[in-house]
Fold this protein.
Amino acid sequence: MKAQTILKLKMGFVLFAVFAGGSAAGALLDGVYRSRAAQSTPSIRDGEAYLRVLDGELHLSTKQSTDMRDILNQTRTEYSSLCSEVKPRYNAVRDKARQRIRELLTTEQQERFDTLVTQENCNCPDQKPG
């Protein structure tokens, strides 16, 4: 009877190890897949990179490629103009939220929060710290 119990424990351990290994491998592969998918899919804002993807997938003619480049350049200009119009409103909402958050924090936490906000601003290419 003792040998049967040991055998059941061994089989249970092996089954658990296989399940855990499969779960870990699945999670790892899912993470790799998601990170590559996020990196490899340019959007319409990416201009030439987006055009290269379209050309590779759709085998564009020279005229189509030229016309699409013109459309993408025009779209980039329109995006830039729109951002210039909306950015002050966006910044006002963001700054109001940051001020409300600061009011909840201790003095030490506020100093650390201000450092984090400055770092966040530095990560935005068109934004100045502060």
